[in-house]
Write a structure and sequence with these properties.
8 helices, alpha/beta, Rossmann fold
């Protein structure tokens, strides 16, 4: 079943339908995962299928062999990137929810990725600190978790992602709330602060893609 409604508040529905009809290439395992996740109250936490396709393309362009993910949910992004990686590829996936990642595990198995994914069920800051201490390096990182900790995850990513690699940060437009001065909740303020921080960070090359809920791409120099 192809998605009929855009997750993005920035793309008109008719335009989104055109995108899906003409460009979406969604593996059957991801389509089944999306359909299972859709009825969940937290379904909005899942990335859109066209974003998954875009991230898979980036992984192929970069030749990603080691991928780090902060925020797994039911596993869509890890599978999208994992299927784009070579057989020797390895994923470290960080989350705190046993319930959500139990769904991810089933689909990792179906996608043939289970043996290549190291799930770390612990606060991500703790996991990232251990990876830094161990001297681990990654080609690509995706941050899609609790917004107040985004800045900390990003700083850890600069130590973990190789120069010329890629850090992707999701939800950076936050349904347009970041541009609305009347909105000042903790999540919105955290994203605003990170966006400003990255815009002035000379350690990276930077771009933003208005796909899904806004995706920042940061390339460590």
């Amino acid at each position: 079943m192809k998605p009929t409604k855009s997750k993005s508040s920035f793309i008109p529905e008719a335009t989104y339908a055109y995108i899906v009809e003409n460009w979406l290439r969604e593996p059957p395992v991801l389509e089944r995962l999306r359909e299972e996740t859709a009825p969940m109250e937290e379904a909005g936490m899942q990335i859109s299928p066209e974003q998954g396709q875009f991230m898979a393309l980036l992984a192929r362009l970069l030749g990603v062999r080691r991928y780090l993910e902060v925020g797994v949910f039911t596993g869509y992004s890890s599978i999208a990137v994992g299927l784009a990686m070579p057989l020797e590829g390895h994923i470290v996936a960080c989350d705190v929810s046993e319930d959500f990642t139990a769904i991810a595990k089933r689909y990792w198995e179906e996608a043939g990725l289970s043996a290549r994914i190291d799930l770390r069920l612990a606060p991500a800051n703790e996991t990232l600190a251990r990876l830094v201490e161990a001297g681990e390096r990654f080609d690509m990182m995706f941050i899609d978790a609790d917004k107040p900790n985004y800045a900390a995850y990003y700083e850890a990513g600069l130590r973990l992602v190789r120069p010329g690699g890629l850090i992707g940060i999701d939800n950076v437009l936050w349904s347009g709330k970041v541009a609305d001065p009347s909105v000042d909740d903790e999540n919105t303020e955290a994203i605003r602060a990170l966006n400003e921080r990255l815009s002035n960070d000379d350690r990276i090359d930077l771009a933003i893609v208005p796909i899904g809920d806004g995706l920042t791409l940061a390339r460590p120099r």
